[in-house]
Amino acid sequence: MRTLKDGQKHPISFTLNGEEVDAYAEPRTLLCDFLRHEIGASGTHVACEHGVCGACTVLVEGKAVRSCLMLAAQAEGATVETIESLSNTDDEFDDLQAAFHEHFALQCGFCTPGFLMTLTMLKRTGRRYSEAEIRDALSGNICRCTGYKEIVDAALTVLGPDSLAAE
Ligand code: FES
Ligand code: FES
């Protein structure tokens, strides 16, 4: 097992939004803090810092995870995706972001990256979801502003039974 002396950092290499990252992190550094403060991927938001609110949700190996419950060192060799990965190179919204915009599914927007990353994981399954399934999937994401109806409505336009994405 590799051991570090006081003050030493772990070398970390992983893929962030399609780009290779080679960096160093203290053993105790959380992935969310590493992304925001060391890499500059500040679209990932941090609120509760103990796994309750879902604001910090990112995709690791395609799975939605709370980056406040994961150490940066645990990302070694992994594929990590944040909200910054959703817009294309022309800075246009992806379909989920556009749906949130059209349905007024955000106010302050602090929770929005977490919601969108959770929904992105669902979208990639390629299947359709009922409203109940979408509500269940989003039950780990908390919004203090909007209520959830607009968020669920936006999700349904992309992921729901009648979505264009499913045709
Ligand atoms: S900041 Fe990670 S779940 Fe709330
Ligand atoms: S839009 Fe403000 S917390 Fe959700």
Automatic annotation (TrEMBL):
| GO MF term set | 2 iron, 2 sulfur cluster binding; metal ion binding; oxidoreductase activity
Query: Record's PROSITE patterns?
Result: 2FE2S_FER_1, 2FE2S_FER_2
Q: Which domain of life is it from?
A: Bacteria
Q: What residues does the 2Fe-2S ferredoxin-type domain cover? A: 10-86
* Pfam families reported for this sequence: Fer2, Fer2_2
State the UniProt keywords alphabetically.
Answer: 2Fe-2S, Iron, Iron-sulfur, Metal-binding, Oxidoreductase
Any keyword Hydrolase?
A: no
Cited InterPro entries: 2Fe-2S-bd, 2Fe-2S-bd_dom_sf, 2Fe-2S_ferredoxin-like_sf, 2Fe-2S_ferredoxin-type, 2Fe2S_fd_BS, Beta-grasp_dom_sf, Diverse_Oxidoreductases
Q: PANTHER family, per this entry?
A: OXIDOREDUCTASE WITH IRON-SULFUR SUBUNIT
The name under which this protein is listed is Aerobic-type carbon monoxide dehydrogenase small subunit (CoxS/CutS family)
Query: What species was this sequence derived from?
Result: Limibacillus halophilus
